[in-house]
Write a structure and sequence with these properties.
31% of the residues lie in helices and 17% in strands. The strands form three sheets. Strands 1-5-7-9-11-13-15-17-19-21 form a ten-stranded parallel sheet, with no helix packed on it. A nine-stranded parallel sheet has the order 4-6-8-10-12-14-16-18-20, with no helix packed on it. The termini are far apart. Strand 2 and strand 3 form a beta hairpin. It is built from eight helices and 21 strands. The protein is elongated. By secondary structure, it is of the alpha/beta class.
């Protein structure tokens, strides 16, 4: 073989050997790196399993501690326990953190522990922390509420014990967080007594926290099973079309601020223990169609402003202590279909203008002190289907109507 060619081949062979050694060396380093990574992955996997086991153990311990904590806190409700007074040694923030883990439906019973417990649990700080922890469950409760505005008189109800029995500060934070965009609230916190047709022994009061938050979208509010008075700032719910507070244990006066609810179409305050007079401001409710004030303890004369509610379809004032006479202005209520003033102490003649109430279907004026002749103009009431004027000893009638009872 030509020496020159042989020299070239030997040179190529030498370069190939050198490249092979270099590749082998690199492959060996890669294998070593892969082995190290595999070892690291195995260690990491083992560490992950260990961490998961630790987390599970911690979760079990937290659940156990929480259960024990609630049990220990429950013991504090017994004033005979020796450690009862030790609650005053716990710092406020620790106190807040501990009790915030208890669902708001059950936590406020611990306000009775001592004055300090009540002070801490009544703060907005506690409310904010408690609601943050139990946000998911509260959202689930509210998701079951029907937020569609019902047609009168159908009022779907749910039970919101969390809100209705909570302190004022908690209601305020709750309303800001969950109620600002609601259109309808229909809550019942008691059972209806079918014998008396009212909610027996109501314990919740009107939720004042609801009135301090601008719930501008709220058009329908129905509350059952409440007591106390109607707050004077009820007028802040200016967007309301429907206010349904019937069948409760409400007492005291009807606040004049109710006249600020200018969009109201339905006002039901019947079957309560409301007293005093009807405020003249009720005449400011120019859109009102249904007014129920019956079965209360209201007194005095019916204010003239009532006869200016020209869109009224139903007016129930029966079973109160109203006195005085019915004015001629009653004839202005041409849209009125149901008019009931029975079981009062009204007197004087029945106004002739009652014949102008062309839409009248039901007329109950029994058990009063009306006198004089029944106006013949009542014969013009072609839609009248039920008319009861009994137990008015001074009334006389010289005509007949099939639906008239006298």
């Amino acid at each position: 073989m030509d020496p020159t060619i042989l020299s070239i081949l030997q040179s190529i062979q030498s370069q190939l050997n050198s490249q092979t050694q270099l590749i082998d060396s690199r492959l060996a380093r890669i294998d070593a790196a892969l082995a190290a990574q595999q070892t690291q992955l195995e260690n990491t996997s083992q560490s992950t399993v260990a961490i998961q086991q630790d987390l599970l153990s911690i979760q079990i311990e937290i659940a156990s501690n929480h259960q024990n904590l609630v049990g220990e806190i429950s013991k504090l409700s017994n004033p005979h326990r020796k450690f009862y007074t030790r609650i005053n040694q716990v710092p406020d923030e620790t106190f807040t953190q501990i009790f915030s883990w208890i669902h708001p439906e059950g936590v406020f019973k611990f306000r009775r522990l001592c004055r300090r417990a009540k002070t801490v649990l009544d703060t907005k700080h506690f409310a904010t922390l408690n609601l943050a922890i139990h946000h998911t469950s509260i959202q689930k409760e509210l998701s079951n509420d029907d937020d569609d505005v019902p047609a009168f008189p159908d009022y779907p109800l749910s039970s919101n014990i969390t809100f209705m029995y909570a302190p004022h500060s908690f209601q305020f934070v709750y309303a800001q967080k969950y109620l600002k965009s609601r259109r309808h609230i229909g809550w019942n916190v008691n059972e209806l007594d079918e014998v008396t047709n009212s909610y027996a022994d109501p314990k919740a009061v009107f939720p004042k926290g609801l009135l301090e938050v601008p719930v501008e979208s709220l058009v329908s509010l129905a509350l059952y099973g409440i007591r106390g008075s109607i707050p004077s700032n009820i007028g802040s719910l200016s967007s309301l079309n429907v206010l349904f507070l019937a069948l409760n244990g409400l007492s005291g006066n009807i606040p004049p601020e109710i006249g600020l609810l200018r969009n109201l179409r339905v006002l039901r305050l019947d079957s309560n223990r409301l007293s005093g007079v009807i405020p003249s401001e009720i005449g400011d409710l120019g859109s009102l169609e249904y007014l129920y004030l019956d079965r209360n303890e209201l007194e005095g004369s019916i204010p003239p402003s009532v006869w200016g509610l020209l869109y009224l379809k139903e007016l129930y004032l029966d079973e109160n202590r109203f006195t005085g006479c019915l004015p001629d202005a009653i004839g202005n209520l041409s849209r009125l279909q149901d008019f009931c003033v029975s079981c009062n102490q009204l007197s004087g003649p029945i106004p002739v203008s009652i014949g102008n109430m062309a839409s009248l279907s039901l007329l109950y004026m029994y058990d009063n002190q009306f006198t004089g002749p029944v106006p013949r103009e009542m014969m013009n009431l072609n839609n009248l289907s039920d008319c009861d004027l009994r137990d008015n000893s001074g009334l006389t009638c010289d005509f007949e109507i099939d639906v008239l009872r006298l």
